[in-house]
Write a structure and sequence with these properties.
With 113 residues, the protein is α+β, with helices and mostly antiparallel strands. The protein has one domain: RelE-like (YaeB-like fold). The protein contains 3 helices and 5 strands; from the N terminus they run βααββββα. The longest helix is centred in the C-terminal third of the chain and has 17 residues, at 95-111. The radius of gyration is 13 Å and the shape is globular.
Length: 113
Amino acid sequence: MQSRPVSWIKAARKDFEDFPPGARFEMREALATAALGGKSDNAKPLTGFGPGVFEIALKHRGDAWRVVYAVRIADALWVIHAFQKKSKSGSATPKPELDLVEQRLKRLREQLR
């Protein structure tokens, strides 16, 4: 199977570059798996955004890191958001992060029509 290109929202790429090297490596592996049509063990559908939107959740050296990507926009895998989860409210993604994902998805879908 041919790999889909991985495209980045600029702000997500900038935030991703601030991840520790080990976390970036593991996230890139998970994104490469997704680009080939698979799903890594640490990726799960992100509900509330329609089909094809996933969140990779990674624990690295005691911190929690997240990357949100979409596979059903144009012909690419789009990285929508990357962040360090600092909330102590369990494994749920914090509402401000979900709001940002929603805004970026809407803007991206409008730009790529």
